[in-house]
Amino acid sequence: MIQPASRAQISIGATTVTYLPDGHGWINPAVFFPASVPDGWARHAEYLDERGWFPVSVGAFLIRTAGRSLLVDLGLGEVDYVLEGAAEFRGGALPASLAVEGLSSADVDTVVFTHLHHDHVGWTSDVAPAPAFPDGRRVSGLTFGSARHLVSEPEWRYWTGEPGFPGPDPVAVLEPLAGRVEFAEDRQEIAPGVRVLATSGHTPGHLSLLVTDPEDDRRLIILGDVMHSQVQVAESHWTCRFDVDPDHGLATRERLLKELETPGTILAGGHFAGQVFGEVRQRAWKARDRG
Ligand SMILES: [Zn+2]
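Structure tokens for the assembled complex are given below, as produced in the milestone run.
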């Protein structure tokens, strides 16, 4: 059975992109991908455990280019909890994963959030987001205090307004980011060869990232949550129950899948199990060999 992914790295020219594990989740597909049950997983049984739940990796991508160190998303934080009948999540490894790369939090110059769901913002501050938000917690600062923090404006406006879905922890995430957050726009270059791509649907201001390097004719797209599982390469109609706009999310996924079918395009799926880097070939998933 396929397990959550471990560290992996890819080079695009002189740029490296490294998957840094923070933790993992196990999810009940009946809750998460309603269209996938009861029969959809028969073709993908290697992804399910004995309960019929599927694993997701949860972590961050470290992009190092031209003396810059960027983190894409901030994992779950130091949490370990069960949502009865729906999912279980455990995080906490991101600082150790960063240390393996020889970096501390002070070395990160940019944090960019694909979106603000709980499993992407966990290390925003020194308080871990909780599934229920207890009173009385105090944040003393941002984990990556010397970094710029980038998010799209529609994403920030949605979650700081009156969202119709469970959103980021106000104490651990929104308050410490307020006044610090900067807005990134579609196609904006946030570091040499690193651009954000507007890929809304899962959330109103969802971003993906495009990584290129003049020394390489390949390109890498960090998906964010346009897909949660490589099974969606073949089953693109499996819409996530937590998509704020499922129809738009599906259209975005189809649009991105066409991009991903372009030869020389490598995909990074932060929630993919087994291996987060791979390629799409004729709507089938081809994991990149390790190493
Ligand atoms: Zn996610």
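The chain has one domain: 8-126+145-284. The pocket of zinc ion is lined by residues 117, 119-120, 225, 271 (CB under 6 Å). Further analysis is deferred to the final report.
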